[in-house]
Amino acid sequence: MRGTRGRRGRAWAGVWLAAAGDLRAAVRHPAAVVLGVVLLGAAGGCGEAAAPARQVVVYCSVDEQVAQPILEAFQRESGIRVLARYDTEAGKTVGLVQRLRAKAARPEADVFWSGEVFHTIRLAEEGLLEAFRPEGLAPRPEGLADAGGRWHGFALRVRVAAYHTGRVAEAEAPGRLEDLLDPKWRGRVVMAVPEFGTTCGHVASWFAHYGAERATEILRGLRANGVRLVDGNTLVVRHIATGQADVGLTDTDDVYAAQRNGWPVAMKYLGHGDGGALAIPNTVALVAGGPHPAEGRALVTFLLGERAERMLAESDSHNTPTHPAVAGDYPAYACPRLLAVDYARVSACMPEAMAAAGKILR
């Protein structure tokens, strides 16, 4: 899900607080136009010499309107200026992953905060992330952290079947992936292109869960039913709301966004065979060789804390908390049954899954 921005092409957003703690009007320095940097709430009055400030650079594929209040909270508490680079909806996560690879010899980022786990695992395997375990880190459910401490998962979203409430009855709406192969859904199904974002990991999870043969059959069944591909999960719910499709594969946060807009969209958690729905955690990691390692560790520690998970649960995204002090406080956002999944195995299946999806669905 991607919220509307005043300037969609903006790549960088830097936020920091003035000494009094208020956010001032946004200002743009001419040199920042070249870099794509926007400075919000610059500290210091006119003519004052700016003292050297601690700062941290974060690559963030979480939607900006969700992530920015959390980064601002960290900035207020720590006094560390935050510079954030966000991704686009169509190239969700993948664009930042490629930039991390391109900058590996001389990283510009200190922290990678992703809205998914699968590409984070691949970056760890490529040696681009540094092991770090915050002191006193609260335990999370099994499988939500790298055994070597190179990445940590938190704040879940879940894959769902979204449907048009005026065209599909709740009892009729698909509750399992296999239901979408029924001929009655021919020409009525939409999903995001599988090369990017959470859809990429979701399709790869079919190969991990069902095996390559059955996963390929599912892709062919979707193709036979005339599944429509669009550029991102936001467009999935938009196509449903406008009657261009009746059901679609997307994430919980996209349905919450549609409902806030008053769109006729509801959801069912999407099971897989006899298994539950796929949970996709946020992940955070320290970038190996980042220019501000101490500040990076401070941000990682904050994001894995109780306050950040509570803010994410109460945000427009309504992520399911994983912090033990928070998890029981938001039952409305808890999925009753999750798919047992090995995220590392899903990540390993991504090349095969993307090759098959590109061949079959395109």
Question: Explain this structure to me?
Answer:
The protein starts with 11 loop residues before the first strand and ends with a helix. Strand 1 (12-15), helix 1 (30-35) and strand 2 form a beta-alpha-beta unit. Strands 1, 2, 3, 4, 5, 6, 7, 8, 9, 10, 11 and 12 form a 12-stranded mixed sheet that branches. The chain has helices spanning 30-35, 64-78, 94-102, 118-125, 197-210, 212-224, 233-241, 252-260, 293-303, 306-314, 343-361, and strands spanning 12-15, 39-40, 55-60, 81-86, 111-114, 129-130, 152-164, 189-192, 228-230, 247-251, 265-269, 279-287. 34% of the residues lie in helices and 17% in strands. The chain is globular.
The helix content, as a percent range, equals 25-40%
What class do helices, strands and sheet pairing give? Answer: alpha/beta
Estimated share of beta-strand residues: 15-25%
Q: What do we call the CATH homologous superfamily of the largest domain?
A: Periplasmic binding protein-like II
The level 1 CATH classification of the largest domain is: Alpha Beta
H and E order: EHEEHEHEHEEEHHEHEHEEHHH
On the 0 to 100 scale, the average pLDDT is 88
Shape type: globular
Task: Extract low-pLDDT stretches.
Answer: 2-12, 14-47
Number of helical elements? 11
Predict the CATH topology of the largest domain. D-Maltodextrin-Binding Protein, domain 2
Key descriptive features of the protein:
362 residues, alpha/beta, D-Maltodextrin-Binding Protein, domain 2, 2 domains, twelve-stranded mixed beta sheet, 34% helix
